[in-house]
Design goal:
Number of strands: 0
Radius of gyration: 18 Å
Number of domains: 2
Length: 197
C-alpha cells in the first residue's frame, strides 16, 4: 500500500475517531455525562464527514473502509455503554428490543469472522441511513431526553439493516468493501450468471 493511500483526509478523520475512543470511554466510566455526549456526537458527526469527503473527492480506499468500520464498531460500543450508564431508567422497559438489536449486530461480526476471517466493511446505503438515524437519536437522547417512537425507529431500522448485512454475507463468495446493498449484490450476481450463459 502506498503511503498516500493511507494519509488521506478521510482516514485522518477516522483515526481521530479511533484515538478518541479511550477518552470517551473514560468520560463514561467517570460519569461525565455532558463530556461523554458532546464527544460521542462529535465522533458521530465526523463519521458522516469522512464518508462524504471520501466519496465526493474519490478518496475511497480499502484500508479506509476497514478503518471506518473498525471505528464504527467502537462508536456503537461507546453509545450502548453510555445508554446503559446514563439512561438505564429510560431503557429498562425496552431492554428486550435493545438486546435483540445488539445480538444481530454481533451476529453480523461473528458470521464475517467465521466465513471471511475478517470484520466486515460493507457500508451499505441502509447502514449509512441507519447511522444518521442513530446519531440523531443519541443527540436527542442526551439533550432532549428519551423519545420512544424515535427509539423504535432506530431499533426497527437497525434490525432490518443487520438482516440485510447477514443476507449479503450469505450471498457473496468473498469479503469486499463498500457494498451498496443486497439489491445490488443480487443484481450483480444475476448479470454474472447471464454472462456465463
Amino acid at each position: 500500500m502506498k503511503k498516500e493511500e493511507f494519509w488521506t483526509i478521510p482516514n485522518i478523520i477516522t483515526l481521530y475517531r479511533l484515538l478518541m475512543v479511550p477518552v470517551i470511554l473514560w468520560f463514561a466510566i467517570a460519569k461525565h455525562e455532558t463530556l461523554f455526549a458532546v464527544f460521542l456526537v462529535i465522533n458521530l458527526v465526523s463519521d458522516i464527514i469522512d464518508g462524504y469527503v471520501a466519496r465526493r473527492f474519490k478518496m475511497e480506499t480499502e484500508i479506509g473502509a476497514r478503518l471506518d468500520s473498525f471505528a464504527d464498531n467502537f462508536n456503537y460500543l461507546l453509545a450502548f455503554l453510555g445508554m446503559f450508564i446514563f439512561k438505564m431508567d429510560d431503557l429498562r422497559p425496552h431492554l428486550v428490543s435493545l438486546f435483540i438489536y445488539i445480538g444481530l449486530l454481533l451476529l453480523t461480526q461473528i458470521i464475517s469472522l467465521i466465513k471471511f476471517r475478517r470484520f466486515p466493511s460493507f457500508h451499505p446505503y441502509m447502514g449509512k441511513i441507519g447511522g444518521y438515524i442513530n446519531g440523531f437519536f443519541f443527540f436527542c437522547l442526551f439533550t432532549l431526553g428519551f423519545f420512544a417512537p424515535l427509539y423504535y425507529l432506530v431499533i426497527a431500522w437497525g434490525i432490518l439493516g443487520a438482516m440485510e448485512h447477514i443476507a449479503i454475507q450469505m450471498v457473496i463468495p468473498e469479503m469486499r468493501s463498500n457494498v451498496k446493498g443486497l439489491y445490488w449484490v443480487l443484481k450483480e450476481k444475476a448479470n454474472d450468471k447471464k454472462q456465463v450463459e
